[in-house]
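=== Discrete structure encoding ===
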Amino acid sequence: MPGAWNFIQVASVAVTPLGSVLVLHRGAHPVMEFESSGRLVRSWGDGMFSEGKVAAIPEAHWTNDKSHYSAVYGPAGCASCGAHSVRVDQQGNIWVIDAPGHVVYKMSPAWKEVMRLGTKGTSGTGRSTFNLPTDVAFAPNGDVYVTDGYGNARVVKYSRDGRYLLEWGKRGKGPGEFGLPHNVVIDRGGRVYVTDRDNQRIQVFDADGNFLTQWTGTGGVSGLAITKDQRIWTGGIVRDLEGRVLGRLSGPGVAGGHGVAVTDSGDVYIAQLSGVVQKFVKQ
């Protein structure tokens, strides 16, 4: 249990089946578990994440088919700068992404590693490598979807036991192309929703990656979360499954949250890179 602490760049937040809140931040004790009241329960993850960080390439050096991001290592990094996303699957397993480490970890509820996707420390475009992955989501049948976002601009699908199934996407602005696939969620029917942050839209696909539709004009949304009653939080805005706006949160920085999570009762948590977690209680 840590002593005095503070959050450093809160990258992501998730809620467990028991209602605990997991906060992923880029500092000491990078994964912290809290009761819904805010009481700290435990922490872990020291030494797990890479010291590299994702950096934007200056616009003068952009090309249409190349990533606008790169990994920076060494003095420019920090102890847990690689921490990017935390998600919890239907069985309560905890998944965390080390973006510049190019790896996705599946951990048991007791925080034991049970599976790893990607090759730690090695970037690539193959079936067993990522290049700065961003998020992970789970289909109703247990299939796993990884947004291999900053470097490769693709979505990769695996079986529940980590067997490669398929992938789609490339850098661009057309249907099924991405500027930056940053977050992903899956609805009860198996449709896949990807926030294409740099193209300021959300794209919707079937389970095999076939393009269905897109929601344009969303702004540069980073975080996605799907509710028990099948609504989607796109940052601080909640929408139905057709993309229609149903409501929105108000508060400092809500629109720019890096991650979002929602409880079964409808409370919403927003992860802010400024180093705070915001909680909004459903009225």
